[in-house]
Amino acid sequence: MTETITISNEPYWWVAAPPSREPAPPLPAKSDVLIIGAGYAGLSAAIVLARAGRSVTVVDKLAPGEGASTRNGGITSGNLRLSHTAMAKRFGADRADAIVGEAKLAREDLYDFIADEGIDCDFRLVGRFAGALSGKQYDAMAREVDHLRDKLGIEAYSVPRSEQTRHVGSDFYQGGNVRMDVGGLHPGKLHSALLRLARSSGALVFGNTCVLGVVRVGQGYDVKTEAGTIRAREVISATNGYTDGSDAWLQRRIVPVRSRIIVTEPLAPSVMNRILPTGMMISDKRKLTYYYRPTPDGTRLLFGGRDGTFAGDPTWPTTHLQAEMINIFPELAGTRLDHSWFGYVAMNRDMMPRVFARGGVHYATGCCGSGVVWLRWAGIKVARKILKLEQTSALDFDPPKSIPFFRGKAWFMPAVFAAMKLQDGLTKR
Ligand SMILES: Cc1cc2nc3c(=O)[nH]c(=O)nc-3n(C[C@H](O)[C@H](O)[C@H](O)COP(=O)(O)OP(=O)(O)OC[C@H]3O[C@@H](n4cnc5c(N)ncnc54)[C@H](O)[C@@H]3O)c2cc1C
């Protein structure tokens, strides 16, 4: 009899840390602060505000954490889509320095928080290897290393092609670089800890409670939800890639892009040691970036990238990712996959994560694919602004610009995906 193998389309992380689905008690009639979205951003804001004595209510239309915050790769990259040079051109050199400086602070703040709160989320500061696709990319990445080391004091070094198998068992790259300030964690366990801390600090967190709209009333807001209306003095929107029509204004500015991850069956220790000898996080410099890492127990490969669809076909994106994985590690050709799932990341026109306010509502949004560090930080920044503990952040930007002919469904993604793939294919090796 042949064994039927089915790939789970639930995140691997939910095995050890399933989203909490307990029934919600009735909503309070009022709250000092109402937060929409119970991911890293919403819960981090809730912890700061509740610990400062504010009454805080967090509502999520899904189970808390069922959005991107329990679906991601767990790489603490604090990555920015734009290079320092590109940011300097667009926002000025000082602002670019401030943004990368804040990325460093945000990363360190996460690591301190995990240690100080005793959070068990399998965090290891193992470093990240980024692979170059061409000699030209390798040279540019070497300049990046100089900047990281000399300007920011981050331990970083170039790895020539002849030495890359020390970090990744593949000859796919033309060398790369390593930065030691990036690590890996279990995103589901991190989210569970944030939820626990938010609740133990006094915040009320409700799942299955969709916000339908927010209306300004005097000095505050009426937040209409499926379970009733809450009067709040302040509102934080932390919906990121899961933004819906209840905020049609934001929806025209944030493109939800599907991002997918596959996880292999357990691999032999000898294979894991060969493909990922140091257990580092790995990414590359393609426009369609792929990233991978060992699962925290070191037994499986977790491999992620953009999904390339905006709806429908669940099999093609999985097969596509698997083919990319085999392209890098041909020895994984016969390997079974146990999980394949997707989530939404939030892209915007200038590809910057940000905090801003509009009509008095505070927004923390625009992760652009990298939010374990950034969106937690953005949530904290918004909370500290409400508490008037600080006024400014390098993430203070105007609201993102709207996108022509776009109302929330990223119909153009397959074409963008194909164009990026073509550009990557043309990168001179
Ligand atoms: C597959 C994948 C891999 C990723 N890998 C990495 C990685 O390795 N490293 C990294 O740094 N980042 C990664 N990210 C990005 C990271 O997960 C996100 O940036 C981060 O989780 C965003 O947190 P958040 O709190 O802003 O949003 P989310 O966690 O997405 O939470 C938003 C919440 O808002 C809720 N919501 C939306 N509308 C409403 C409404 N009307 N009413 C009530 N609730 C509402 C949603 O239900 C959702 O739960 C990845 C993302 C994905 C999808």
CA-to-CA gap between the ends?
47 Å
Give the beta-strand count.
Answer: 16
- Any idea how many domains? 2
**What is the CATH architecture descriptor of the largest domain?**
3-Layer(bba) Sandwich
Gist of the model:
The chain has 429 residues and is an alpha/beta fold. It has eleven helices and 16 strands.
Describe the structure.
- There is one protein chain.
- The chain is α/β, with parallel strands linked by helices.
- The chain has two domains: 22-72 and 189-255 and 349-409, FAD/NAD(P)-binding domain; 125-183 and 256-345 and 414-426, 2-Layer Sandwich (D-Amino Acid Oxidase, Chain A, domain 2).
- Helix content is 31%, strand content 22%.
- Strands 1, 2, 6, 7, 8, 9, 15 and 16 form an eight-stranded mixed β-sheet that branches. An eight-stranded mixed β-sheet has the order 4-5-3-11-12-13-10-14, with helices on both faces.
- Strand 11 and strand 12 form a beta hairpin.
- Helix 2 (40-51) runs parallel beside helix 6 (187-200), helix 2 (40-51) runs parallel beside helix 10 and helix 3 crosses helix 4 (93-116).
- The protein is globular, with a radius of gyration of 21 Å.
- 48% of the residues are buried.
- Flavin-adenine dinucleotide (FAD) binds next to helix 2, strand 10 and strand 14.
